[in-house]
Design goal:
Elements: H1 23-37, H2 50-59, H3 65-78, H4 82-86, H5 90-97, H6 104-120, H7 128-132, H8 139-150, H9 159-170, H10 181-190, H11 195-211, H12 230-233, H13 252-262
Helix pairs in contact: 1-11, 2-8, 5-6, 9-11
């Protein structure tokens, strides 16, 4: 007589949203704060084209806004459309990149411009999968362009957004070192259902993380959801690692930038 195989109990996945999360209040307060306090950045203005938004997303990867602004403005003056950039050699894109660092981003942006001209009639595509197929465009950049250039509903997850989610909802000082499946589920669960509010939410949480809920010195007294923040309620427990800032002075990137300027 053979015995039946043992049945292992199935563990249910943890809910994406912790119990008691006041999601409506988070949406209302953070979005309202953004409408009142958001920085006036040129790629956020109504007259900015999808190409302008795309260029900003490439430049802002691991680079502070204050260093991006003058380069973006000159770039858009010189190459206001993908076709304008595609008509130039890639070396010109790298030269115009200046001291932003990571010059491969310039090469990939040039490659994306060529692909846009050849495959999309010179217009930046709105479709997420089409964006993802372009050189240099990963999941974050594709979602960001879909949302900020075309007003589509997509879940944008960058370091600033992850930090706001970790503190306000999960009660942690910092998010995981790298994006986890649980963080992705949380971000998707926090997304407002209607498209316009979801686009605003993506921008608002990103701005809150950049200006108030910063990695090293958060200004909790300025936060619109301080009284709702799970991290504050838990007594602001310490993180299990020290975050790295976007250092520039004295780094290899600064030296490479100087060399590029001379060349």
């Amino acid at each position: 007589m053979t015995s039946e195989p043992k049945r292992t109990a199935r563990t249910r996945p943890e809910p994406a949203l912790p119990e008691g999360t006041n999601i409506e209040a988070l949406h209302h307060r953070i979005n309202g704060w953004f409408l009142d306090q958001a920085r006036d950045l040129p790629w956020r203005r109504d007259e900015c084209t999808p190409w302008g938004v795309m260029v900003s997303e490439f430049m802002l990867q691991q680079t502070p806004v204050k260093r991006v602004l003058p380069v973006w403005e000159e770039w858009m003056r010189r190459w206001p459309t993908p076709a304008d950039l595609a008509a130039e050699p890639a070396s010109e894109a790298v030269r115009a990149w200046g001291r932003l660092g990571y010059p491969r981003r310039a090469q990939r942006l040039h490659g994306a411009a060529v692909a846009i001209v050849e495959q999309h009639g010179g217009e930046v595509p709105a479709d997420y999968e089409a964006l993802l197929a372009l050189p240099g465009v990963g999941s974050y950049t594709a979602a960001a362009i879909s949302v900020f250039a075309f007003g589509l509903r997509a879940t944008v997850i960058d370091t600033n957004i992850r930090r706001v989610h970790a503190r306000a909802v999960s009660g942690k000082a910092l998010p995981s070192r790298s994006l986890t499946a649980a963080e992705t589920r949380l971000a998707e669960a926090l997304m407002p259902a209607d498209t316009p509010t979801s686009c605003l939410w993506n921008a608002a949480t990103m701005e809150l993380g950049a200006l108030v809920c910063t990695a090293k010195s958060p200004s909790c007294q300025l936060c619109p959801v301080e009284d709702l923040c799970a991290w504050v309620a838990a007594g602001k427990p310490e993180a299990d690692y020290t975050p790295k800032g976007q250092s520039w002075h004295g780094t290899d990137r600064q030296v490479r930038g100087a060399v590029m300027a001379v060349l």
